[in-house]
Amino acid sequence: MNSDEIIGKLCECGFDTYIVGGAVRDLLRGVNPKDEDIVTAATPDQVLEIFKDQKTKEVGKSFKVVLIDGIEVATFRTDRYNGLNSKDVETSIVNSIEEDLSRRDFSINSMAFCQYTGEVIDNFHGREDLKNKVIRFTGNPETRIYEDPNRILRACRFLASIGGTFEEKTKEALKKYSYLVKDNISKERISIEIFKALSIKNTSIFFRALHEIDALKYIFPSMNLCFGLDHGKFHIEDVGSHLMVCGDNISSKCSLIKLAGYLHDVGKLKFEVDFDNIIHFKQHEIYSYVFIRKELHDLKFPNRYIDYISNLSLLHMRVFESPKAIRRLLKDCEERNVGMKDIIRLRLADRKANMRRESFLVSDVKKMINDIENVKDERPPNKFRDLNINGNEIIELTGLKPGPEVGEILKHLLDLVIDDPELNENEILKQKTLEFKKGNL
Predict the structure, then answer these.
(1) CA 226 vs CA 15, 178, 229, 270, 271: distances in Å
(2) What's the CA gap between 114 and 19, in Å, rounded?
(3) Domain final residue, candidates 131, 157, 186
(4) d(CA 295, CA 262)
(5) In the listed set 114, 131, 148, which residue is the last one of a domain according to the structure?
(6) Fewest 10 Å CB contacts: which of 94, 133, 288, 343?
C-alpha cells in the first residue's frame, strides 16, 4: 500500500489522520517531499487490526509507531524527555493532533495537513514563519534545546534551507546553549547534519549561523577562526568569507568537493608577517591538510572521506601551466586517488571566491582541460612500472641489496622522467642511477 491508501483506509475507519512535519513544510514551499510522516488518532493495536492483511510491524511499544508495508504510521503522542538525550524519552498517547504538534521542534515543522479536506492545522504560526523565512522553536526554546541539543544544529540547517533568520528568543537560546554541542551531541549525529546541510546550495548559511551562535568552534574550530581573518594583499575578502563563497560555488551533488571548498584554506591560520607588515600564507595547503584530517577524524568521518577531502585541499594550489606541472599533478592525483576533474572544480570555485580577481573565462577552462588531455594522450610515466628500468637491474648495476635504497633510486628516476619523458631510456636511466648512487648513497 502507498501512503494515500493508508491514510484513506484510516479515515474510512473513523480515525483522524494527517500528514505532518517536514512534508507539510515542503508542500507549502512547492517542494516535493522526500517522504511523508503520517499520524493518526488510531492506537497501534487498532492500526495493526485495520491492516492485518498487510505486512505490518510495531516499532517498539514505547514509540507508538507501526510500519505498514514499510511506511511509518504514528499515533498522536506526546514526549517527556529527561533532558540532554533524545533517546531518554517517555512517549504517551494523546487525543488530538494539536497536542501532537506541540511536541515538535520548530513552528515550520509543527503543521498538519489533511489531504482530503485541504485543511492545514497550524496552531504555532508555522505557515507565517515559513512565508517570512523565520526559524522559531515551538513552545519554550530552552526546553526544546534541553530535550535534544541536536536541535541547535537542526535550527541552523533549516535556516540555510529557507534562507531565513532566527526569531529573537530562538537565537538567544541557541547562543546560550551552544556549548551543549561539544559534549551532548554524538559526533555521528553532527556528521549527519553536516551532510544534510551540504545538500543545500548555500550551505554557507549553515556554517555562518553556527559561527554566529558560537557553536562552530566545537565542530570545525579552524573554519571558525577564519571568519574575520585578514586575507592579505591578493584578496579583499576575509578568509572565512572566501571559504563560504568557494563552497557555495560547488554543486550540492558533489558533497565531498563542496565540503573541501568550505575547508580548503583553513591552513591560512598559520600565516606569517614580514618586515614590511605583509601577510604570507606559506605552505598553507599543507597546514589545511593537517587541520582537515584531524577535525574530520574527530567527527568520525569515514577514512575514505577524510582522505578525499584533505587530499583535494592539499592539491588545490597546483598549477596547470606546463606539461611538466600537469604530469606531476596527474601522478599525485593517481597516488592520492583524487580525480583531476574534481581538482578543476575546486580550482574554479576558489577563483570565483577571490573578490580581487576575475573568474576564469570559458576559454581559460577549455585550455586547461585541453592541456590536461594532451598530456594524458602522451601517456606520461607516473609509476615505477612505467620506467624502462626495474629494481633487479638497479641491484645488478649498483651491487645494492633489495631494500629502501633501491626504492629511493626508483623514486629519483621517476621524478626525472616525469619532468622530462625523453629520459625514459634504459641506458640513460642506468647512467642516472650511477650518478645518484655516487652522490647520495
Answers:
(1) 54, 19, 5, 11, 11
(2) 7
(3) 131
(4) 13
(5) 131
(6) 133
Domain hosting residue 423, numbered range? 384-440
pLDDT value for 43: 94
The secondary element (H helix, E strand) that includes residue 39 is: strand 37-40
Q: What is the mean pLDDT of each run of 10 residues along the chain (441 residues)?
A: 92 94 92 89 94 88 85 90 70 91 95 92 96 97 94 98 97 97 95 97 98 98 96 92 97 97 96 84 94 97 97 91 87 90 94 92 90 82 85 90 90 88 89 84 50
Helices (H) and strands (E) in the chain, counts: 22, 13
> What stretch of H or E contains 40?
strand 37-40
Specify whether the CB–CB gap between 316 and 264 falls below 8 A: yes
CA distances from 287 to 5, 166, 188, 290 (A): 56, 34, 25, 5
239: its cell numbers: 578568509
Tell me if 193 sits within 8 A of 97, measured CB to CB.
no
Q: What is the pLDDT of residue 216?
A: 98
Domain count, the chain: 2
Please identify every residue annotated as catalytic: 35, 37, 105
Cell matching residue 83 = 533532558
Predicted TM-score (pTM) of the model is: 0.85
Quote the pLDDT of residue 86. 61
Q: How far apart are CA 236 and CA 50, in angstroms?
A: 65
**Could you tell me if residue 345 is inside a domain?**
no
Domain contains 78: yes
